[in-house]
Amino acid sequence: MAELPDYLAATARCRAQSNAVVDNAHPLAELLEVSGLLRHRAARWIQERIRVYGASAVHAEVEMGRGGACVAGIADEADGVADLATDPGAVVTVTITLDIDTILGGGADTDSDTAAATGTATAILTPTNPPWDEVTVESMSLSIEPLSFHFNFGFLLDLDMDISNLQLDAVEPFGAPLEPDGSVFFPSALFHISGTAHAEGFLGLINEDLMIDNVSESNFSGRFTGGSGTVVFDQLFLDSLTDELDPADLPDGINSLAFTINVDLGGVVFSGSLTPIPEHFDHDGDGDIDLLDYADFVACTTGPDIDIFPPCDIHDADEDGDVDHHDFGEFQVAFGIPQ
Known about the structure:
about 350 residues; Type 1 dockerin domain; 3 domains
């Protein structure tokens, strides 16, 4: 049986109300009175704690009045947003296979270069606290310092290529469940790779700026770890991306030009903070419960048993179809979150 975590240091406290009691069908219900926001989920939370820690341990916990445990356990079901940035010293190795056909000949060759990289990412993790069950990467952007490549396609058929402003961006959010160790696999994630390539060679036939601008699906994976409000996103792997330039955009003498680009992200680590996302009352979606949300709460208040409609349902904390004094009690608990 697992050891019961100590939540005595939790700052939140369950606010008891005489008419807000956990589902009485549960054998521990009479021991824990919670307010409207918690009543629908506390029974499920207690059942899970009994499964993990045993009924006697949970019974003792509740009798000791660990209100922080009540709130922390139920808050774990909510989401958290991770705002991440690359750690100092992040580097990527870019390997390009260039397939070219010209009036002088051509073929395929591969070269690699390594450069520093900086970027940001935003992820939604569920629940708020680890171990997390699932993640959605809302955004990810990586800027790569200039790179230089040299390709040889035979006698006197050399090509030098300098790439600048290379950018790798997630086009849209992608999500997946997390493994117990925090690893995650995103099949067919959509990425945009862009930049400018200056190419010279082929006995002077080529002296051009070529645009890299490609959106394609690629398998992507990584690992999310952390705790105490911090998140680390590492062990990143991205499948190769391909780009074939439009023949109409190529200079005279070049029949075709295609890239296969592999961006090795093993040297990139994102890290940052994790902030709980308020489930109720945050009407403007800015991540906190403040006076603007209070003004909206007041405007939406109906009193008991008077139906409310979206968007006022965000203030119906006990989900009984109205916005009344019970919901106001929960608003007082939530006001100022996150600090």
